[in-house]
Amino acid sequence: MKNGSVDPKPEAHEEPPEKVRRAIGASAMGNFTEWFDYGVYAYTATYIADSFFPGDLESATLLTLGVFAVSFIIRPLGGFVWGPLGDRLAVVRSWRSPSF
């Protein structure tokens, strides 16, 4: 290195390809599952509206879609709560705590 120049090959930590593939696969499965749930809810919104909000179908559908919209607002808030909790306590404890 001359005159304060930067080393062209800094040491970088690289994960093994198998570990990267597993992480990408797990992320893809989780993402698919989440969006599948949203898709099923949206597809069955009229049935849900009829079951949970009796009365005018138009109002009931709007209320059902409002509940659907709330899930998009709550999702990042849950990430702010459960993400750090999972980092601190371990992944397994974080998975078990919302289910009890």
UniProtKB/TrEMBL annotation:
Compartmental location: Cell membrane
TM region positions: 60-83
Keyword annotations from UniProtKB, A to Z: Cell membrane, Membrane, Symport, Transmembrane, Transmembrane helix, Transport
Keyword Transmembrane set for record: yes
Source domain of life: Bacteria
InterPro entries listed in its UniProt record: H+-coupled_symporters, MFS_trans_sf
Membrane topology: Multi-pass membrane protein
Regions annotated as coiled coil: none
Name of the molecule in the record: MFS transporter, MHS family, proline/betaine transporter
Species of provenance: Rhodococcus rhodochrous J3
